[in-house]
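Reagents: none. Just compute today. Xanthine phosphoribosyltransferase.
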Amino acid sequence: MEALHKKIREEGIVLSDQVLKVDAFLNHQIDPYLMKQIGDEFARLFKDAGVTKIVTIEASGIAPAVMTGLNLGVPVIFARKHQSLTLTENLLTASVYSFTKQTESTVAISPRHLQATDRVLVIDDFLANGKASQALISIIKQAGAEVAGLGIVIEKSFQGGRAELDAQGYRVESLARVKSLAGGKVTFID
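Predicted 3D structure written out:
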């Protein structure tokens, strides 16, 4: 997706050979027009996948997930990282390790929002080691639902997440596949 590649080149900041900062348009400040384009592209890619729900993790996945859900006409559920007074029933939960934050947290979804009849599209901002994707897949399976595929805004292809998901037979569609961050420069897989 050329608009995303351009935004990453112009506004992304390479912090190390493992970390790409995109807080100017994706995960702190959000570019609504770019999010619309991302939602349009995910909807195009998954329009025939029978998606009935979209699942993401708060907070950075919410904007692209909502735009995709709007386009596909399906609800969006976000797995919460923090317990709330209103989220108390027998929750669907999984542990997820954050590569950038270097912390582990438990994410949760209410079982009343995810049924065994659902075909679920996972949307996330990044795919690195695949831990967030695996946590969401675990929650979807706990509900007895089916994974329709995974839509990733930015994939760090030099890390093992994609290979693991491919090996498990999941369809993964990434809009920007980063080959390398070496030397402070973003190189894409075309």
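The chain has a mean pLDDT of 93.
Action item: order primers for follow-up constructs.
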